[in-house]
Write the structure tokens for this entry.
Amino acid sequence: MKPLPLPLPLPLPLPPPPAPTHVWMMRVTGCVMLECRVELAFVVGASVIPHPDKVEKGGEDAYFIHDYGGGVLGVADGVSGWAAEDVDPALYSRELMAHASNAAASEEMESNARLLLHKAHSATCSIGAATAIVAILDRSGTLHVANVGDCGLRILRNGKVVFATSPQQHYFDCPYQFSSSEGGQSASDAAVFKAELLKGDTIVLGSDGLFDNVYDRDIESTLSVFGGSDQESAERTMALAILANKHSRDETYESPYSREAIQQGLDLPWWKKILGKKLTGGKVDDITVLVGHVVDAEILPKPTPSLVSADLVDSSPDSAAATDVEAPPSKDESPADVPDQFPEGLAESWA
């Protein structure tokens, strides 16, 4: 993911890195039981699989889950391009979500998702940038959503996706983003939605690492395996995260990411297509998934002290190989001039 072309800031001192581990993948899973005080509420599961090169620091995505009203959820994706300026992209996304969580229960919020993003953005002091989405379920069962960038949300009813957000971007792989420098977006640029939810509905909230690698039909088929019980909340999110991670590493997979690249003009030259080749592959990225199942609030127990737990999982180094993201063509270049400079994950395959 590319940052906006902004003046280079002075980097902040970075915190000491965590102790190195021998694992290639970290899964963070958890289940949150929201407080019994509204008519409808979410039972939420969360899973995170970091980019294979960013496992030691837990990736650059961040999320929060708050029990205000029927539940408040948020996901932010740190813009990885800032790493080239010696800035840890995770700092901005984590601080942004921490401020959003702190502001979620304030009386002035009144289920205003755009205001929640504004409060979080205004309070964030770290250098960097991030995309972000927040979703608030109010006491009447109305879902309020505000989104800046390419994080996304899906609403499923009776097992089918009935609503999907669309990514906001300046050009391919350069989404709208909150930023510490001039030129970034503000909460006024957010796409805002409202939807009336019913008992049994499910929402899926995630970073682009999810939606670049799985189609809506994949989400439908994966969640259909599970029921709506709170015991299965973590399993639902883990299943989606693992599927997205599998697709992200498959150079022959025709992913949403590779299809969008073709639509934006980043395709193979015509002579390679005549030979039967095509542009394929997923996007290797941090993958964050939240799944909220709508239930009657009176069946929910009081919130548990533990929010999430972490599992470290060994994975083959060969399957975890990744390279740095390459910059897109400049304004003076057309995609046809640089047919071999594709973003990370895309590759040539036989049609």
